[in-house]
Specification:
There is one protein chain. This protein is an all-alpha fold. The chain has one domain (about 5-195): Four Helix Bundle (Hemerythrin (Met), subunit A) (Up-down Bundle). The protein has helices spanning about 5-20, 25-55, 60-80, 90-110, 120-150, 155-185, 190-195. Helix 1 (about 5-20) runs antiparallel to helix 2 (about 25-55), helix 2 runs antiparallel to helix 5 (about 120-150) and helix 3 (about 60-80) packs antiparallel against helix 4 (about 90-110). It is globular.
Amino acid sequence: MNLPNKLTVARMVMAFAFVALLSFDHVVCLALGYLLFIAASITDIIDGRIARSRNLVTNFGKLLDPVADKILIAAAFTMAMLLPDLMLPGWVVVSIIGREFLVTGARSLAASEGIVIAANRWGKLKAVFQMGYIYVFLGLVIVNRIIEVAAPDWLAYMELAVRQASLWAGIFVAGITIYSGYQFALINWRALRVSSAL
């Protein structure tokens, strides 16, 4: 197994470790989970670059890399929904995860017929907003835990602000995600029709 594929597998393992850590409502576990998410998202950036620059692109990597990405995003938004500090509706999480797996399925179907569907700018923008949401709001949850100990009088104000911001930011991210899925279908409609007809 080459280095990019090892990084992809490591990202999947880190996603499961992230879920395990966030299952414990303690500031240390939250902080470790936060660092693990950052490390996992870094592997997402570098594994493809290494594969392309060193000519290490494999079918295994093509199959597993997008799956690892989706597992990480699904894990992050599922655990964020369960955090009491955040207000993330179930429909937001389902729309984000559903879009991710539908697009991955469509790409796999097209790839099985030799049709490659590349990521477009909307897909990349969606990924930035999704990752940004987790970075910002998981970070704010950790700040809440610190305020709870250091300045408890401020906790109620901070909790209210974080919950409201997480709700509207989550709705915005869901909107971008759904729209990127629409753009994916619009741009690749012909390729998807050809693939389904074969």
